[in-house]
Design a protein that fits this description.
Elements lengths: L1 E3 L73 E5 L3 E2 L7 E2 L2 E9 L2 E12 H23 L3 E6 L24 E9 L4 E3 H4 L5 H13 L5 E3 L11 E4 L9 E4 L1
Parallel strand pairs: 1-12, 6-7, 10-12
Antiparallel strand pairs: 2-5, 3-4, 5-6, 7-8, 8-9, 8-11, 10-11
Helix pairs in contact: 1-3
The structure holds zinc ion.
Pfam family, one: Extensin-like_C
Organism: Roseibium marinum
Keywords: Signal
Amino acid sequence: MRIVTQYCCAVLAGTVFGLPAPAAGEPVPNAKPLATTRQQPFLEGIDTPPAKPQVPDSTRNVSGTRSEPLAACDIPGALLDVAEPVTDGGYEDCGIADPVRLAGVVSGPNTAKFHAPVTISCDFAKVLTDWLRRDVLPVAELEFGIPVAVVASGPGYQCRRRNNRPDGKLSEHALGMAIDITQFQLADSSNISIEKDWVTATGKGKFLQAIHAKACRRFTTVLGPDADANHRSHFHLDAGCHGQDCTYIICQ
Ligand SMILES: [Zn+2]
Protein backbone atom coordinates (compact mmCIF):
# COMPACT_ATOMS: atom_id res chain seq x y z
CA MET A 1 0.00 0.00 0.00
CA ARG A 2 1.47 3.30 -1.00
CA ILE A 3 0.75 6.60 0.59
CA VAL A 4 0.93 9.55 -1.70
CA THR A 5 0.94 13.15 -0.76
CA GLN A 6 -0.55 14.79 -3.79
CA TYR A 7 -3.98 16.10 -3.10
CA CYS A 8 -6.82 15.23 -5.25
CA CYS A 9 -10.36 15.72 -4.98
CA ALA A 10 -13.47 16.75 -3.37
CA VAL A 11 -14.55 19.87 -1.64
CA LEU A 12 -17.37 20.11 0.76
CA ALA A 13 -20.66 21.11 -0.65
CA GLY A 14 -23.16 20.13 1.96
CA THR A 15 -25.99 22.18 3.25
CA VAL A 16 -26.07 21.08 6.89
CA PHE A 17 -22.70 21.31 8.50
CA GLY A 18 -22.48 23.01 11.81
CA LEU A 19 -23.56 22.06 15.23
CA PRO A 20 -24.49 25.63 15.87
CA ALA A 21 -25.03 27.79 12.82
CA PRO A 22 -21.74 28.64 11.14
CA ALA A 23 -20.17 31.75 12.55
CA ALA A 24 -19.71 34.79 10.40
CA GLY A 25 -16.79 34.33 8.09
CA GLU A 26 -16.98 30.56 8.02
CA PRO A 27 -17.31 29.12 4.55
CA VAL A 28 -20.86 28.21 3.78
CA PRO A 29 -21.06 25.05 1.71
CA ASN A 30 -22.75 25.60 -1.58
CA ALA A 31 -23.64 22.56 -3.59
CA LYS A 32 -23.51 22.93 -7.34
CA PRO A 33 -25.42 20.32 -9.29
CA LEU A 34 -23.85 18.76 -12.29
CA ALA A 35 -24.22 21.05 -15.23
CA THR A 36 -22.76 18.94 -17.98
CA THR A 37 -21.61 15.43 -18.69
CA ARG A 38 -18.69 16.61 -20.81
CA GLN A 39 -15.52 14.87 -19.74
CA GLN A 40 -12.09 16.45 -19.63
CA PRO A 41 -8.80 15.22 -18.24
CA PHE A 42 -8.66 15.48 -14.50
CA LEU A 43 -5.67 17.66 -13.61
CA GLU A 44 -5.47 17.61 -9.86
CA GLY A 45 -5.13 14.02 -8.98
CA ILE A 46 -2.68 11.23 -9.08
CA ASP A 47 -4.38 9.21 -11.73
CA THR A 48 -5.77 9.62 -15.17
CA PRO A 49 -9.48 9.19 -14.73
CA PRO A 50 -11.12 6.20 -16.31
CA ALA A 51 -14.26 6.71 -18.31
CA LYS A 52 -16.25 5.98 -15.20
CA PRO A 53 -15.29 6.04 -11.54
CA GLN A 54 -13.99 2.73 -10.27
CA VAL A 55 -16.12 1.82 -7.31
CA PRO A 56 -17.58 -1.38 -6.03
CA ASP A 57 -20.22 -2.78 -8.34
CA SER A 58 -22.81 -2.41 -5.65
CA THR A 59 -22.55 1.36 -5.82
CA ARG A 60 -22.17 2.09 -9.52
CA ASN A 61 -24.58 2.48 -12.35
CA VAL A 62 -27.53 2.61 -10.06
CA SER A 63 -30.17 3.28 -12.62
CA GLY A 64 -32.08 0.15 -13.35
CA THR A 65 -29.94 -2.13 -11.23
CA ARG A 66 -32.10 -2.15 -8.14
CA SER A 67 -35.54 -0.88 -7.45
CA GLU A 68 -36.00 -2.16 -3.91
CA PRO A 69 -34.16 -1.07 -0.78
CA LEU A 70 -31.50 -3.32 0.66
CA ALA A 71 -32.89 -6.15 2.71
CA ALA A 72 -30.44 -5.23 5.44
CA CYS A 73 -27.17 -3.52 6.16
CA ASP A 74 -25.78 -5.10 9.25
CA ILE A 75 -23.04 -3.05 10.87
CA PRO A 76 -22.26 -3.62 14.54
CA GLY A 77 -22.75 -0.44 16.53
CA ALA A 78 -24.32 1.55 13.70
CA LEU A 79 -27.63 3.36 14.11
CA LEU A 80 -29.05 3.22 10.62
CA ASP A 81 -32.01 2.60 8.39
CA VAL A 82 -31.79 1.22 4.89
CA ALA A 83 -33.03 3.76 2.37
CA GLU A 84 -34.65 3.72 -1.03
CA PRO A 85 -32.10 3.43 -3.86
CA VAL A 86 -30.74 6.86 -4.69
CA THR A 87 -30.62 8.06 -8.26
CA ASP A 88 -30.17 11.49 -9.68
CA GLY A 89 -32.48 12.29 -12.50
CA GLY A 90 -30.85 12.22 -15.86
CA TYR A 91 -27.31 11.66 -14.70
CA GLU A 92 -26.72 7.94 -14.74
CA ASP A 93 -23.41 7.89 -12.90
CA CYS A 94 -24.76 9.50 -9.73
CA GLY A 95 -26.53 7.42 -7.16
CA ILE A 96 -26.28 4.71 -4.52
CA ALA A 97 -27.51 1.17 -5.03
CA ASP A 98 -27.23 0.24 -1.36
CA PRO A 99 -28.00 3.46 0.51
CA VAL A 100 -28.48 3.80 4.21
CA ARG A 101 -29.21 6.69 6.50
CA LEU A 102 -26.61 6.55 9.21
CA ALA A 103 -27.81 8.42 12.30
CA GLY A 104 -24.89 7.66 14.57
CA VAL A 105 -22.91 4.97 16.33
CA VAL A 106 -23.02 3.24 19.67
CA SER A 107 -19.93 2.20 21.58
CA GLY A 108 -20.41 0.72 25.02
CA PRO A 109 -22.55 3.10 27.04
CA ASN A 110 -21.95 5.99 24.65
CA THR A 111 -23.91 7.11 21.63
CA ALA A 112 -22.58 9.63 19.12
CA LYS A 113 -25.11 10.94 16.64
CA PHE A 114 -24.72 12.91 13.46
CA HIS A 115 -26.20 16.37 13.53
CA ALA A 116 -28.49 15.03 10.83
CA PRO A 117 -28.49 11.47 9.44
CA VAL A 118 -26.14 11.05 6.50
CA THR A 119 -27.01 9.23 3.29
CA ILE A 120 -24.19 6.94 2.21
CA SER A 121 -23.68 3.46 0.85
CA CYS A 122 -23.77 0.48 3.17
CA ASP A 123 -20.17 -0.30 2.23
CA PHE A 124 -19.02 3.18 3.16
CA ALA A 125 -21.10 3.17 6.34
CA LYS A 126 -19.07 0.19 7.53
CA VAL A 127 -15.79 2.05 7.16
CA LEU A 128 -17.16 5.23 8.68
CA THR A 129 -18.71 3.41 11.61
CA ASP A 130 -15.44 1.62 12.34
CA TRP A 131 -13.52 4.88 12.30
CA LEU A 132 -15.99 6.56 14.66
CA ARG A 133 -16.31 3.65 17.09
CA ARG A 134 -12.75 2.40 17.10
CA ASP A 135 -10.81 5.63 16.62
CA VAL A 136 -12.77 8.83 17.22
CA LEU A 137 -14.68 7.86 20.36
CA PRO A 138 -11.76 6.16 22.15
CA VAL A 139 -9.35 8.99 21.34
CA ALA A 140 -11.84 11.51 22.69
CA GLU A 141 -12.22 9.51 25.89
CA LEU A 142 -8.47 9.37 26.22
CA GLU A 143 -7.89 13.04 25.50
CA PHE A 144 -10.87 14.62 27.21
CA GLY A 145 -12.37 11.98 29.45
CA ILE A 146 -15.69 12.96 27.92
CA PRO A 147 -17.49 11.06 25.17
CA VAL A 148 -18.34 12.47 21.78
CA ALA A 149 -22.08 13.16 21.58
CA VAL A 150 -22.57 14.79 18.17
CA VAL A 151 -20.75 14.62 14.85
CA ALA A 152 -21.34 17.57 12.53
CA SER A 153 -21.03 16.66 8.90
CA GLY A 154 -22.25 17.25 5.40
CA PRO A 155 -25.07 15.17 3.99
CA GLY A 156 -22.85 12.50 2.46
CA TYR A 157 -24.47 11.93 -0.93
CA GLN A 158 -24.34 14.72 -3.48
CA CYS A 159 -24.49 14.45 -7.25
CA ARG A 160 -21.55 16.59 -8.30
CA ARG A 161 -18.02 16.52 -9.59
CA ARG A 162 -14.84 17.02 -7.64
CA ASN A 163 -14.34 20.51 -6.34
CA ASN A 164 -17.78 21.42 -7.67
CA ARG A 165 -16.31 21.81 -11.13
CA PRO A 166 -18.60 21.69 -14.16
CA ASP A 167 -16.54 18.86 -15.64
CA GLY A 168 -13.91 16.38 -14.61
CA LYS A 169 -14.07 13.33 -12.42
CA LEU A 170 -17.16 12.51 -10.43
CA SER A 171 -16.88 13.12 -6.71
CA GLU A 172 -17.10 10.12 -4.43
CA HIS A 173 -19.95 12.02 -2.79
CA ALA A 174 -21.98 11.30 -5.93
CA LEU A 175 -21.68 7.58 -5.17
CA GLY A 176 -22.37 7.70 -1.46
CA MET A 177 -18.73 6.86 -0.77
CA ALA A 178 -17.66 10.06 0.99
CA ILE A 179 -18.41 12.27 3.95
CA ASP A 180 -17.27 15.69 5.12
CA ILE A 181 -16.81 16.15 8.87
CA THR A 182 -16.63 19.64 10.33
CA GLN A 183 -17.00 19.46 14.10
CA PHE A 184 -17.50 17.24 17.10
CA GLN A 185 -19.49 18.05 20.19
CA LEU A 186 -18.67 16.37 23.47
CA ALA A 187 -21.22 15.31 26.04
CA ASP A 188 -20.48 18.46 28.06
CA SER A 189 -21.51 20.52 24.98
CA SER A 190 -17.99 21.71 24.23
CA ASN A 191 -17.17 21.88 20.53
CA ILE A 192 -14.12 20.75 18.62
CA SER A 193 -13.91 22.54 15.30
CA ILE A 194 -11.62 21.36 12.54
CA GLU A 195 -11.35 24.90 11.23
CA LYS A 196 -10.57 26.51 14.58
CA ASP A 197 -8.73 23.80 16.48
CA TRP A 198 -6.70 21.92 13.84
CA VAL A 199 -3.50 23.88 14.22
CA THR A 200 -3.73 24.67 17.91
CA ALA A 201 -1.36 23.14 20.46
CA THR A 202 -4.23 22.03 22.62
CA GLY A 203 -5.97 18.82 23.52
CA LYS A 204 -8.49 19.58 20.79
CA GLY A 205 -5.74 19.98 18.21
CA LYS A 206 -4.07 16.80 19.38
CA PHE A 207 -7.37 14.93 19.15
CA LEU A 208 -7.97 16.11 15.57
CA GLN A 209 -4.44 15.23 14.49
CA ALA A 210 -4.81 11.77 16.01
CA ILE A 211 -8.13 10.90 14.38
CA HIS A 212 -6.92 12.30 11.05
CA ALA A 213 -3.90 9.97 11.19
CA LYS A 214 -6.11 7.03 12.08
CA ALA A 215 -8.50 7.86 9.26
CA CYS A 216 -5.65 7.35 6.82
CA ARG A 217 -5.55 3.70 7.86
CA ARG A 218 -9.22 3.18 7.02
CA PHE A 219 -10.18 5.44 4.12
CA THR A 220 -8.48 5.80 0.73
CA THR A 221 -8.71 9.58 0.76
CA VAL A 222 -8.33 11.81 3.79
CA LEU A 223 -8.10 15.54 3.15
CA GLY A 224 -7.92 18.03 5.98
CA PRO A 225 -6.86 21.65 6.46
CA ASP A 226 -3.29 20.86 5.39
CA ALA A 227 -4.49 19.67 1.97
CA ASP A 228 -5.65 22.97 0.52
CA ALA A 229 -7.86 25.95 1.25
CA ASN A 230 -10.96 24.03 0.17
CA HIS A 231 -10.56 21.75 3.16
CA ARG A 232 -9.64 24.28 5.84
CA SER A 233 -12.91 23.67 7.64
CA HIS A 234 -13.41 19.93 7.38
CA PHE A 235 -12.10 16.44 6.84
CA HIS A 236 -13.09 14.91 3.52
CA LEU A 237 -13.10 11.12 3.92
CA ASP A 238 -13.80 8.75 1.07
CA ALA A 239 -13.29 5.16 0.02
CA GLY A 240 -12.74 5.72 -3.67
CA CYS A 241 -10.38 3.77 -5.87
CA HIS A 242 -7.11 5.51 -6.69
CA GLY A 243 -4.62 4.10 -9.11
CA GLN A 244 -5.07 1.11 -11.34
CA ASP A 245 -4.96 -1.36 -8.47
CA CYS A 246 -6.82 0.82 -5.97
CA THR A 247 -3.93 0.77 -3.52
CA TYR A 248 -3.10 4.47 -3.39
CA ILE A 249 -3.91 6.23 -0.17
CA ILE A 250 -4.23 9.98 -0.24
CA CYS A 251 -3.53 11.34 3.23
CA GLN A 252 -3.22 15.05 3.75
ZN1 LIG B 1 -15.92 15.88 0.55
